[in-house]
Amino acid sequence: MKEKKKRNSFREGAIPAAFIGEAIAKHSSKTEIGAHSIFLGQVRNDIIEGKEVKAIEYTAYAEMAEEAIYTIREDAFSKYQLTCMHIYHSLGRVATGEICLFVFTSSKHRRDAIDACNEIVERIKKEVPVWGKELFEDDTSVWKVNT
Q1: What is the 3-state secondary structure (H, E, C) of 40-78?
Q2: pLDDT in tens, 32-72
Q3: Helix (H, G, I), strand (E, B), or coil: what is residue 107?
Q4: pTM of this prediction?
Q5: CATH number, domain at 82?
Q6: Range of the domain at 58
Q7: Residue 2 falls within a domain, yes or no?
Q8: Count of domains forming the chain
Q9: Is residue 133 part of a domain?
Q10: Are strands 130-136 and 141-143 parallel, antiparallel or unpaired?
């Protein structure tokens, strides 16, 4: 059996709305799909110790992170009746209000698309070695703790 090609799940900077729109539009010709579920993670302007977050600087141990995402993808394909899946996470600086995580699942029926998307997002937060440093207006920063 041929091993599936591993995809590059990381993008430098914010994930543009046009990229997300194009990904959705490309699926209109796949008429066996009856449902899509989409998660968009956006950088919040949290207030931490009286300072407002202006951006997050994402870093990752790339090889290990890609391997973790590959495992999550393969597990989801074996557990759910998915037609298609896309996972993209930002690296580098992403300003508040911009998209840093894009998960897009497609299936014949909504339950598989929704459940898979939710599980993938939870696993990414727990298992993928990506770290975010919250950047403040005064040029100070603090490492983000995932919740």
Answers
A1: EEECCCCEECCEEEEEEEEEECHHHHHHHHHHHHHHHHH
A2: 999 999 999 999 999 999 999 999 999 999 899 999 999 99
A3: strand
A4: 0.92
A5: 3.90.1170.40
A6: 10-25+33-143
A7: no
A8: 1
A9: yes
A10: antiparallel
